[in-house]
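User: Before I run my own analysis I want an independent prediction to cross-check against. Here's the chain; please return only the structure tokens and, at the end, one sentence I can use as a sanity check.
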Amino acid sequence: MDNSIFRNKFWFVFFVLFVFWYLLLYGFDWSFLPGLSSITLDHDKSIQSLFVRSNPDVVETNNSQDSSENTTNFLGKQEIFVNTTSAENDVDIEGLEKELEPLLGKYEDEDENYEKCKGRYIYVHNLPSCYNQDLIKNCKLLNQWTNMCPSLVNMGLGPDLGNPQRIFLNKGWFNTHQFNLEVIFHNRMKQYDCLTNDSSKAAAIFVPYYAGLDVSRYLWSSKNASVRDYDSVNLVKWLKERPEWKRMWGKDHFLVAGRITWDFRRGTNDDSGWGNNLMRLPESQNITMLTIESSPWHRNDFAIPYPTYFHPSSDNDVLLWQSKMKRQKRKNLFCFAGAPRPNMVDSIRDEIMEQCKTSRRKCRLLECTNNRNKCHKPVYLMKMFQTSIFCLQPSGDSFTRRSTFDSILAGCIPVFFSPASAYVQYLWHLPKEFSKYSVLISEDDVKNKTINIDNMLSQIPRSKVSAMREEAMSS
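Assistant: Structure tokens:
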């Protein structure tokens, strides 16, 4: 016990003496005593030498100069750095900053781009050319009835229309084919400002497969089901082998198809079935499919509008066009552009065309009976829409029509005869309150001849018509 007390006292005394010695040596200025002024000077010099060793760019000043001028209280005022830094050294620092500026700017740009694109990055699969570009090269084989090659120029927009009869604007108008959506979308995607080559950053992964062009080669041919399915089946196999697929098993993948969903949903393996089986493949159930007409009974495809003739390059082009359409004089109460469907029992087109002919003072009819008539020339079609208040949009081969979007573009209010023509389709694009931009007439009433289209449309107040047009054009 006594020994431990003694040891504790010893270490306490030793500690006190050490502190006292340190304070005397470094805390007290001995320079006023003769012969001891070198203590402070040597101490400062030792600090200066340490600074110079750790900073080789700092050059010592002329040794003939009074050393006290170069070592004035480094700890307190940092004058050693100022006095020992030459003008030449300042130039070196500026040069170093200039060298680093591009690198620093690059990092700043990357950080800014990351913040802008966070959650918006898209990775595009580099597919074998047989799934897209080879189809474009062999454009003459895409359709049994029509040469698709002219429509694929201008990155899928088709030939420039110019402005005949001053129906359009001087720029932004093209003779665009209704089934070119996938080509147009792919080329627009190439200009997207948040593309990435690092798929781990991507919020979504785009599959640039021209599914519509692929299947269109066989829709009216006698090719068996296995031939029609060949590219779709092999595409899915290719995707499954990619690391991007294995991350979420395709749930972050999306594909744009330029035809209606029913062209990709053959319900049987029988060769007589229509289209291919792309959307019925097990792996395809995880891929989001964007089509011009979707299936209300399936969860993985979504409808987006048909491409129209108008492809503006700026917001100002849109505003100019809207202003032009709002000032347009409309002499026709309603109009219809289309052909009858004699082979479709439930079609109401014959009755609609008959009512239009009966009301010829108020209705304009453009019959699409062959490829050579005015119905297939944008200038005549858009002129009719621009001079009509209402545009009739009955179902054709399927529920939806490209004409719906051409008419809305022209400020002509669409008249539907089935909710499936728009209301259950374009949920991302058209107003949810459909009565604000369109009119719905029952197919059964038309079929049973219990409604007169002329009388019904004539009863809509002008104020409501203006509001509907405004809503349609701004959607």
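Sanity check: Confidence is low (pLDDT under 50) at residues 31-89.
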